[in-house]
Design brief:
Distance between the termini: 20 Å
Oligomer: single chain
Low-confidence stretches: none
Number of domains: 1
Radius of gyration: 32 Å
Mean pLDDT: 85
Strand content: under 5%
Strand order of the largest sheet: 1-2
Structural class: mainly alpha
Order of helices and strands: HEEHHHHHHH
Length: 200
């Protein structure tokens, strides 16, 4: 009975302990006094610091402004933009030119304008990106924007976001607690029987 009971109790204690540890990451939302100690979830308690760190990580490592500007300067995006503008210019010019003009003349005008736009567009886009980039560097603080956005979430929303990302890992922590508790229970039983046999 003891051989079965001790590992099962160990598993239960391990699982409950880890479940409680996961629960205490988020709860209680507000500080609670228990036996002279103040208890509050890690996320609610350190929310401001968490928001600040997330903002810094996004600004400095995940989405640096210079990397974003380089994307706008990229050849692939420029080619896509030129193709879109080229098509739009041809269609608009064909639509706007008077219908009494011959079709061949309208085509020739639309193609000439589209070609001119294709030549002028890349340097214009680069100039706009550079100007826009300088303005962004002066006006936009990405880390502050992210920090304010995270702080604007309610604690329930924040909990939902974190658990939606890490729910599997949090569940694994709970299960691992049960497994470790079971193994410790088995070791206790083993030590108990070893001790009993060595003195019998």
């Amino acid at each position: 009975m003891q051989t079965v009971f001790v590992p099962l109790v160990g598993a239960l204690i391990g699982w409950v302990t880890n479940w409680l540890a996961v629960w205490l990451i988020f709860r209680p939302y507000r500080p609670v006094r228990v036996l002279g100690y103040t208890i509050q979830g890690v996320v609610p308690k350190r929310r401001d610091e968490l928001a600040r760190v997330i903002g810094k990580v996004i600004e400095e490592q995940l989405l640096p402004l210079e990397q974003l500007l380089n994307y706008f300067r990229s050849e692939q995006l420029n080619e896509e933009l030129i193709r879109s503008v080229d098509t739009a210019v041809r269609v608009r010019v064909m639509d706007r030119l008077p219908g009494f003009l011959p079709l061949s003349l309208r085509r020739m005008i639309s193609e000439a304008l589209a070609e001119q736009v294709k030549k002028e567009l890349p340097p214009l886009v680069n100039e706009l990106v550079n100007r826009f980039g300088e303005k962004l560097k002066g006006d936009l603080c990405m880390s502050k924007v992210v920090e304010e956005q995270v702080n604007s979430f309610s604690l329930e929303q924040l909990e939902r976001i974190i658990t939606s990302v890490a729910s599997r890992e949090l569940k694994h922590i709970e299960i691992l607690g049960g497994v470790l508790g079971f193994i410790i229970g088995l070791l206790q039983v083993g030590i108990f029987w070893l001790y009993k046999w060595s003195f019998s």
